[in-house]
Specification:
By secondary structure, the protein is α+β, with helices and mostly antiparallel strands. The chain contains 2 helices and 6 strands. Helix content is 33%, strand content 13%.
């Protein structure tokens, strides 16, 4: 009988309150420890928004280590970049640029 391996990659979590986020991260860390897995803190990112503005004073921990904020190191999750810019005005032009690069690569390959 073969073993079933489960991989969790690019997980994004959203909470409405800071204390809920901290509690959720502790519970996730407990579950990961139970399953003998661990988070890669270097690959994790955090983003805190209060009253529609980026809050640079809040830091979260995973596995007893501070996670970098998206201001320090932007991250890509599910084709979307998370960074310190809260507006999506650049997303349209970025999408067009990605599409043209992809189509150009297809034309070269065919």
């Amino acid at each position: 009988m073969s073993l079933l391996k489960a991989f969790m990659d690019d997980t994004t979590t959203l909470c409405s309150k800071e204390n809920e986020t901290r509690r959720m991260l502790v519970r996730l860390d407990t579950q990961m420890n139970w399953s003998r897995k661990s988070f890669k803190t270097k690959k994790s990112r955090s983003l805190s928004i209060r009253k529609g503005k980026l809050n640079k004073d809040v830091f979260f921990k995973v596995a007893s280590q501070d996670t970098p904020t998206t201001t320090q190191e932007p991250a890509k999750s599910l084709i979307r970049w998370y960074n310190s810019f809260l507006k999506d005005t650049k997303r349209g032009s970025e999408g067009l640029e990605q599409a043209s690069v992809g189509l150009h690569a297809i034309e070269k390959g065919g």
